[in-house]
Amino acid sequence: SQQGEEDPQALSIQEGENATMNCSYKTSINNLQWYRQNSGRGLVHLILIRSNEREKHSGRLRVTLDTSKKSSSLLITASRAADTASYFCATTRGSARQLTFGSGTQLTVLP
Amino acid sequence: DARVTQTPRDKVTEMGQEVTMRCQPILGHNTVFWYRQTMMQGLELLAYFRNRAPLDDSGMPKDRFSAEMPDATLATLKIQPSEPRDSAVYFCASALSTSNTGELFFGEGSRLTVL
């Protein structure tokens, strides 16, 4: 079963706007990762945030983690049409290395 | 350019036929995962190997699915007999268990359609 649920399921914005996606999970975690999937392609790792971190940045990406609320958010600033993709959060817990994925957010950036 | 290679990319078959999907993990990676992606269920973990040994295949229907790693450069996922409900995209991913990032590297997937 899926560990994470993402919100919204779909998001459509104009190029240049910021996009925010949220992820909630159910159990304690070691870390939380965000992946991107272009249509018809495999998933690509974007960023990892550990359970003892609250915020992390990578280029135009900003990830936050609130372990008390069991939630994370991914912010993409100054979005581009090329950012159009599905975005998934994924968690690991305990000694397990396998990732449990959320349901994903389909982001469409209109030129 | 290191990447995970999956074959076939697309497979259409009839119900009851055997299907074998293959994956070549990134050289040096010792952990291999099989995921299945459908619209209804999203991404589900089917099986997970480390150093070629199966660690977790609890997500895999045992009666018809089998996963193996004949050697460190090849992982296989077999469905016999296939059923229409097996139609999905099957992803292989590899990782290095000692990596700090825990990042998984995904292949492009094998899209299976069972008629």
Architecture overview:
The complex is a heterodimer of chains A (111) and B (115). With 111 residues, chain A is an all-beta fold. Chain A has strands at residues 4-7, 10-14, 19-25, 31-37, 43-50, 55-58, 61-66, 71-76, 85-92, 100-101, 105-110. Chain A is globular. The model of chain B has no long low-confidence stretch (mean pLDDT 94). By secondary structure, chain B is an all-beta fold. Chain A binds chain B through residues 2, 30-31, 33, 35, 41-45, 48, 88, 92, 96-104, and chain B through 4, 31, 33, 35, 42-43, 45, 48, 50, 56, 91, 93, 95, 97, 101-109.
**Cα-atom radius of gyration of chain B:** 13 Å
Shape, per Cα inertia axes of chain A: globular
- Residues in helix, % of chain A: under 10%
| Largest sheet features of chain A | 6 strands, mixed
| Series of secondary-structure elements of chain B, N-terminal to C-terminal | EEEEEEEEEEE
Low-confidence stretches of chain B: none
| Helix-strand topology string of chain A | EEEEEEEEEEE
Gap between N and C termini of chain B: 36 Å
The whole-number mean of residue pLDDT values of chain A reads 92
Give the largest chain-chain interface (CB within 8 Å): A-B, 22 and 23 residues
Structural class of chain B, by secondary structure, is mainly beta
Helix content of chain B: under 10%
Outline type of chain B: globular
| Beta-strand content of chain A | over 45%
Structure classification of chain A? mainly beta
Strand tally of chain A, please? 11
Task: Give the total of beta strands of chain B.
Answer: 11
Number of helices of chain B: 0
Report strand % of chain B: over 45%
Q: Radius of gyration of chain A over alpha carbons?
A: 13 Å
